[in-house]
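Quick start: read one record
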Amino acid sequence: MKHLRPALLWWLLPAFAAGVLAWAAFAPIAAGSRDALFEIPKGTWARRMAGDPVDILPPTIVLTLGVNDTLLLRNRDTVPQVFGPVLIMPGQDFRLPFDTVSINEFNCTAHASGSMKVIVEAHPAAGLPRLQWRLAHIKEAISRG
């Protein structure tokens, strides 16, 4: 009887792992908010003018339709910031919703290079695409710390 328990575990572990993968591949993607928030902290402009290569925004932002398809820029700095054709005043938020798969380039004074790319991806279909999407987001979260 004691020898049966380890053998049973060797059968249960793969079955459990397969269940988790099946869930990840087919479960709907839930998001608390469709906003992808990026904040420009107070003092960013002053640090940049002092020669500090401030890197507060990524060069590319990837959004997913139906999950996080609204870019939210929050200007906490003491100077206005330009994003595309929009002037974001100190203390203001700017929301830009996307409803199509696209690649967009914007001028952005808050970014060190002066521009930023926003890629909008399709909502991942159930099955392998959704599993790959979830794994990529887990990997990204781990790499950000």
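The radius of gyration is 21 Å.
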